[in-house]
Design goal:
With about 350 residues, the protein is an alpha/beta fold. The chain has helices at about 25-30, 35-45, 65-80, 100-115, 185-205, 225-245, 250-255, 265-275, 300-305, 305-325, 335-350, and strands at about 50-55, 90-95, 125-135, 145-150, 205-215.
Length: about 350
Amino acid sequence: MGGVNVLCMNAGDDESSYANNSNIQKKVIQNSRIFLEETMKKSGTIRFPECFKMVDMGCSSGTNTLLVVTNIVNIVHKICHERKLKAPEIQVYLNDLPDNDFNTIFKMVPQFCSKLENGEGDKSSKCFISGVPGSFYTRLLPSKSIHFVHSSYSLHWLSQVPEKLGNYNKGNIYISKASPPGVYEAYFDQYKADFSKFLQLRSEEVSPNGQMVLTFAGRSNADPTSNDCCCKWELLAKSLQDMSAKGFIHDDEIDSLNLPLYTPCVNEVKDIVHYEGSFTIDHLETHEVNWDLSNDEVESASDKNNSGKIVAKAVRAVVEPMLANHFRTGNSFMDKLFERLILMESLCNI
């Protein structure tokens, strides 16, 4: 669980895939579009460079990936149209870990580029898309080469499970009310080190006057055990314990499982950015997004009325590869595990 390469979403486009269960991530992208436009207007205060280079870090896979690219391309064209400027060529770097489902993205790129070139507005500009596999907690791009950095719903993932934990957080898989003293501190120390590293590395890659828009899961309460950040993971831990009681997995495997994520509060983010010193915050805003968002094109009518099922499918799309890697029985018990999580989620919503 310590290695970053374990962290990938469910690939493909089947019922359990991330592509078909990432509506909360889509909503985050939609909510942040206005701030994306405001920030990019600052990037093009006078005019855009001949080739505008941007990177999407933690791009994952599915339609959300190209939704981000579409938004950025459309915003660049809008700004250029308003200022009577020639639209630049756009180089898009899509970054995620090597085990990310890049194949699904690349299969969509030709059609995406064709629609882009045949769309309205300035058709003379080109968009070039390439993949950059690797952890965003390492250097990924040449010095001072990037004009715009974007990351959506990724920076709450850590580079590794906090080393101090081991089997110390028994029965839990994240910070919870039942966690022993020191668990929160271990998680926060890892997050502080990782986020500081991310900022420092991006400062080396971003060109002078470059900009960033970062969105990630956080918590509204300073208390790290509040329901808005750990409730879903406590229910998943209880579901795993039920699997152990039925003999599918062992208690010691649960005891050694700690999710490599951290959901910071606003003040923690502000403090880290301030003390690291590479960037300043132009704007910081929080939004509440429900986990049980449905999608008319994906979910059936029964799913829309079943919050527990929608939430469990969203959780499964994100954590199933990690769980299958961690437990000796692999993914053989996953259907039963998430059936149990559906029941627990549904009971919580009664």
